[in-house]
Amino acid sequence: MSMPKIYRGRFAPSPTGPLHFGSLIAAVGSYLQAKHQQGEWLIRIDDIDPPREKKGAAIDILTTLEGFGFEWDSDVLYQSNKLQRYQEAVNDLIKQQLAYPCSCSKKSILKKTGQTEGEVVYPGFCRDKPLEKSPEYSIRLRCSSEHIHFDDTIQGKQAINLEKLKGDFVIQRRDHHFSYQLATGIDDAEQGITEVVRGADLLDCTACQLHVQRMLNLPSPHYCHLPVALNDAGQKLSKQSHATPIVTKNSVVLLYKALKFLGQKPPAHLMNANQEELWCWAKTHWRLDFVPKINPNIN
After folding, report:
1. Is residue 291 within 8 Å of residue 227, measured between CB atoms?
2. I need a surface site. Which of 23, 65, 218, 293 has the fewest CB within 10 A?
3. pLDDT at 230 over 50
4. Is-above-0.90 flag for pTM?
5. Averaged over 3-19, what is the pLDDT?
6. Exposed/middle/buried for 281, CB within 10 Å: 0-12, 13-18, 19+?
7. Is the predicted pLDDT of residue 25 greater than 90, yes or no?
8. Which pLDDT score, from 0 to 100, does residue 131 have?
9. How far apart, in Å, are the Cα atoms of 38 and each of 34, 188, 235, 286?
């Protein structure tokens, strides 16, 4: 009789700036989902986009997580240490004719298709072109009109047509850096992640990452997308929207607020408790079925 598979979750921030309340929600949700099931929780630093990264941000993120009482179960994985693996995957996909070089810029795609600025759906202009030696191209992964189905633990059944949503999407950019979709799809599979718990703003990314895993014959985790915190203007909290960084001195108040946002019901007295008491309650009483689908507007 085989042993049951241990639950393994992860939190994978990009070192583009300090953590904010939206980051904390994703960290708390993924952490408690793992710990409530006596599972493992891993940290991965998604440092594959050097032009957007801030010096010292990775260390600051890890220090902040420690200050909030998070404990992870293995050494931190830095994606920048896996560049050779990602290149091997790209080469393999090209060899199988599942991926191809593309010389189109976003501007040229918009001009040719008449699409407006925003999410660009790529119609496959370069699909049948031969591989050139020029470095001025990205690598795109072929998609089909077939829907990608998955059952999200919170958001429910999903059916996403990648061809209509994104078209053949980039897995290696013109500057040779690897895409988030490629690296995340590979690492979630190869780290043995059993469930990805993250913000619902990344729901569409799931179809891309499932497609990457299937094209590379890799296993896929389950997915669980949490509600996303918004600012007063209705924008997602992010570094781009200048979200306020979280600080350790307010850890109990912010953790309590994150639990409330996630639909949990911590007793009022825990607002004045110490960090250890709050975490003990949260790990014991975590209820995923209490988590709302959308932003609950908790102040």
Report:
1. yes
2. 293
3. yes
4. yes
5. 89
6. middle
7. yes
8. 66
9. 6, 19, 35, 12
